[in-house]
């Protein structure tokens, strides 16, 4: 592996702790280190106005557990056979119980989500009743909790350098200590000295197709509904200084969504939302023109039960949403209300009310018959005709004999007919450099790389199953852990 640059002749910026990434984990690390007396600088890849990572565009919930012992039992059960060291589980559980107290101590207003215990993703697992999902302030969604997190940094003298991605870690030749970060600004590089430590909080690799092909099972490609700036930078930086990796095959997905070249992130189709009932008939087929799942099934963040195991939802590519004119004319296929998701909140694409602008763009295909529609999208006409006919018979019988679907049992009969190509989609990946209970990034032999820490989705603790709101909760928990330990380092000379 190529050796990273040694200490430069001149440092452009000097500080105690460098935090790479400005999402919830970066906030918690930076605020904690600052409040313990360390000088802190944040390097952020996105331009100002698009910072916040997945935290900004997620549902805005964070996990606060009500019992350390029950949280230990629940996380251990979530891990299944993919065990996480007991010391890590213990620290996670202890810190998760402190998320509300920490936020309140800084002026926040934690409010529990309504409809508990519906938010418990795996209620059958031991300790699950410790799960409590919170957000800041009276309203859920719309980046409001992120705005609280962001304000904690903005209230402090913590410089934020936007459009300044970290590109390499600067490591001492002999001691292997991390001395700082080589970052990019435009076509130039700057060197940022970290007298005490570096904390990587720059997210996963959900917008890096090569890493997706290498690490994620079952998806030849996958597109993000979250920030497009998470391209695995922290993974490559950490690997280059000797870091081990873990949980690289785990991710919050897949779902099925529309991805077009004109927009960086995905569109979630309203008809595929578990809880939404849309007039008209629809199914989803794979490249063989056959259905492969209950299209209205509610996954557990992309996981479905298969033969006694939880596995990622099958997404045979390419996939096509097939529907009739009754659905097309019922209203917009995409909900542009800016409650969550990068496309809704940041891109703000103005989807037409009658879907005709998207039809004209070619995002939606149409034909007068199912056979003709199959030819338009490259499917076998006879097979698609048979698949739609079989679906229509299921609707007549009010029973989906193939996949047990119970919602929107409406036949596809109202011509013309339409198709939208769907792609696998996800909010985030969980894998990255392995960390220990102090937030230190470690080598394959388990020893820490001196002065290098991480938090958040970059090397998340979630190895198998994932509890909703757990990522932002972990960002806060291990952001504090890493911030505390980085601030406690003795400055190097």
From TrEMBL:
Question: Annotated Gene Ontology MF terms?
Answer: oxidoreductase activity
Query: Which cofactor(s) are needed, names only?
Result: FAD
SUPFAM superfamilies from the UniProt entry? FAD/NAD(P)-binding domain, Succinate dehydrogenase/fumarate reductase flavoprotein, catalytic domain
**Superkingdom as given in the UniProt entry:** Bacteria
Q: Which Gene Ontology BP terms does the record give?
A: steroid metabolic process
**Domain (FAD-dependent oxidoreductase 2 FAD-binding) ranges:** 16-471
Q: Which UniProt keywords apply?
A: FAD, Flavoprotein, Oxidoreductase
Work out whether the entry's keyword set contains Flavoprotein: yes
| Name by which UniProt lists this protein | FAD-dependent oxidoreductase 2 FAD-binding domain-containing protein
Q: Which organism is it from?
A: Entotheonella factor
């Amino acid at each position: 592996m190529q050796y990273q640059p040694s200490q430069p002749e001149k440092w452009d910026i000097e500080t105690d702790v460098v935090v790479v990434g400005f999402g919830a984990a970066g906030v918690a690390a930076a605020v904690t280190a600052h409040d313990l007396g360390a000088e802190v600088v944040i390097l952020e890849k996105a331009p100002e106005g698009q910072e916040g990572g997945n935290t900004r565009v997620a549902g805005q919930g964070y996990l606060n557990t009500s019992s350390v012992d029950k949280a230990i039992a629940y996380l251990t059960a979530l891990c299944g056979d993919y065990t996480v060291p007991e010391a890590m589980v213990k620290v996670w559980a202890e810190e998760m119980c402190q998320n509300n107290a920490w936020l309140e101590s800084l002026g926040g207003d934690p409010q529990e989500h309504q409809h508990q215990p519906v938010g418990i993703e795996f209620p059958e697992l031991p300790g699950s009743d410790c799960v409590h999902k919170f957000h800041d302030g009276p309203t859920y969604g719309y980046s409001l909790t992120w705005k609280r997190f962001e304000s904690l940094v903005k209230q402090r003298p913590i410089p934020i350098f936007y459009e300044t991605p970290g590109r390499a870690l600067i490591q001492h030749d002999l001691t292997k200590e991390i001395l700082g970060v080589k970052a990019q600004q435009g076509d130039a590089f700057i060197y940022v000295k970290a007298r005490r430590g570096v904390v990587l909080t720059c997210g996963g690799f959900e917008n890096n197709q090569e890493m997706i092909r290498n690490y994620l099972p079952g998806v030849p490609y996958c597109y993000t509904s979250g920030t497009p700036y998470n391209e695995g930078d922290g993974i490559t930086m950490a690997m280059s200084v000797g870091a081990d990796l873990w949980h690289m095959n785990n991710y919050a997905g897949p779902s099925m969504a529309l991805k077009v070249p004109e927009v960086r992130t995905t569109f979630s189709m309203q008809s595929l939302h578990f809880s939404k009932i849309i007039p008209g008939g629809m199914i989803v087929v794979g490249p063989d023109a056959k259905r492969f799942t209950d299209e209205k099934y509610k996954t557990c963040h992309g996981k479905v039960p298969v033969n006694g195991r939880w596995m990622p939802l099958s997404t045979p590519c390419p996939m096509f949403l097939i529907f009739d004119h009754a659905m097309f004319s019922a209203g917009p296929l995409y909900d542009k209300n800016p409650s969550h998701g990068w496309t809704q909140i940041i891109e703000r694409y103005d989807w037409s009310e009658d879907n005709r602008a998207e039809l004209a763009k070619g995002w939606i295909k149409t034909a007068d018959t199912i056979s003709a529609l199959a030819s338009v999208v490259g499917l076998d006409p006879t097979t698609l005709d048979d698949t739609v006919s079989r679906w229509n018979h299921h609707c007549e019988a009010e029973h989906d004999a193939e996949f047990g679907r119970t919602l929107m049992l409406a036949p596809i009969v109202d011509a013309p007919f339409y198709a939208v190509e769907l792609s696998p989609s996800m909010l985030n990946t969980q894998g990255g450099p392995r960390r220990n209970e102090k937030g230190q990034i470690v080598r394959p032999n388990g020893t820490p790389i001196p002065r290098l820490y991480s938090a958040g989705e970059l090397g998340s603790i979630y190895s198998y199953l994932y509890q909703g709101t757990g990522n932002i909760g972990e960002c806060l928990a291990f952001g504090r852990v890493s911030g505390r330990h980085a601030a406690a380092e003795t400055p190097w000379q």
